[in-house]
Amino acid sequence: MKVMIRRSEGQLSAYVPKKDLEEPIVALEKESLWGGWARLANGWVLELPDMAEDTRLPITVEAKKRATAEEEE
């Protein structure tokens, strides 16, 4: 799914246009953001693509919805 990642007031967020959903990113697998998972405040876990650490935001990427926090536990 297409996801726009942006940083606003020091907080990363993800916007999913198809769902008209914008949620803060509350946890990351990798500090660099790219190439791991990102957990959204609503519990969704998205797999983000590998990209350079200095990739400029905002950016739209293709991400996969892995699971929700409840499904992982």
UniProtKB/TrEMBL annotation:
Source organism, top-level taxon: Bacteria
SUPFAM superfamilies on file: NifT/FixU-like
UniProt xrefs under Pfam families: NifT (PF06988)
InterPro entries: NifT (IPR009727), NifT/FixU_barrel-like_dom_sf (IPR024044)
NCBIfam families on file: nifT_nitrog
Protein name: Nitrogen fixation protein NifT
Name of the encoding gene: nifT
